[in-house]
Structure formats: structure tokens, C-alpha cells
Amino acid sequence: MNSKLYVGNLPYSATEDELREMFSGAGSVASVVIITDRDTGRSKGFGFVEMSSGAEAQKALTMFDGRTLGDRQIRVSEARPPESRSDRGGGSGYRGGSGGGRDRRGGSRGGGSRRRW
């Protein structure tokens, strides 16, 4: 098992120190990060805990998935690798357009089917 765990449904008031203390009950905690909104700095309600070994991660998953922290029942699962960000950049990625050389009247651009005198 991967040693990195996803921890979801965290109370917004949860701190990294609280998670570190909680997960240390399952073994040695290598790192803890709570994901925050880049603009407001407020917690997004999830984070990651990395244990020192896969066996400790499995133990933590078993011990803490479904446990109550604050007023919320947290979810713990094995973290998935981050998705590729190669397609990220400016814009939304939408490449729509009119797609043709005809206007709405059905003629060619520049006048449609109008007669010229």
C-alpha cells in the first residue's frame, strides 16, 4: 500500500497539528498538509497524511476512516497520484467555433445568397 493517505470531510477548523497528533496513534507521521484555498487561505476540507510505511498507512486507514473529528465524520483512503497537468494553461480548453464558411443565411460569407445588381 502507498504510504500517502487522503483525508476528506475535515472540519474547516482542523489543523495540521491535530491531524499529526491523531495519526501518530497509528505510527510515525512523515508529513501532513491541509489543502487551502489560494485566494482566501481557508481550508478546503481535505488534506493528505503521509505515514512512514505502507503498513502504518494501512493501520491508520483502518483506525480513522469514519472516525469523528470535530463535528464531522472523516474519510480516509489511499491517495491517488496527482493527475497530469500538461493540458493546463490559459483558457478553459474549449476550442469551439463556427466551423464553416457559411453565414446563418446559408450563403457564403460576404453576402449570402443575395443578388448583386
What does this structure look like?
There is one protein chain. The protein is an alpha+beta fold and 117 residues long. It has a domain at 4-78: 2-Layer Sandwich (Alpha-Beta Plaits), CATH 3.30.70.330. Helices cover 16% and strands 26% of the residues. The protein has helices at residues 16-23, 54-64, and strands at residues 4-8, 29-36, 43-51, 68-69, 72-73, 75-78. A four-stranded antiparallel β-sheet has the order 2-3-1-6, with helices on one face. Strands 4-5 form a two-stranded antiparallel ribbon. A hairpin with a 6-residue loop joins β2 (29-36) and β3 (43-51). The longest helix has 11 residues, at 54-64. The protein is elongated, with a radius of gyration of 26 Å.
Summarize the structure.
With 117 residues, this protein is an alpha+beta fold. It has 2 helices and 6 strands; from the N terminus they run βαββαβββ.
Q: How are the strands ordered across the major sheet?
A: 2-3-1-6
Radius of gyration: 26 Å
Q: Assess the beta-strand content as a share of residues.
A: 25-35%
Quantity of strands, as a count: 6
- CATH topology value of the domain at 4-78: Alpha-Beta Plaits
CATH homology superfamily of the domain at 4-78:
RRM (RNA recognition motif) domain
Could you estimate the helical fraction of the residues in percent? Answer: 10-25%
Question: What is the overall silhouette?
Answer: elongated
Structure characteristics:
Alpha-Beta Plaits; alpha+beta; single chain; 26% strand; 117 residues; 4-stranded antiparallel sheet; two-stranded antiparallel ribbon
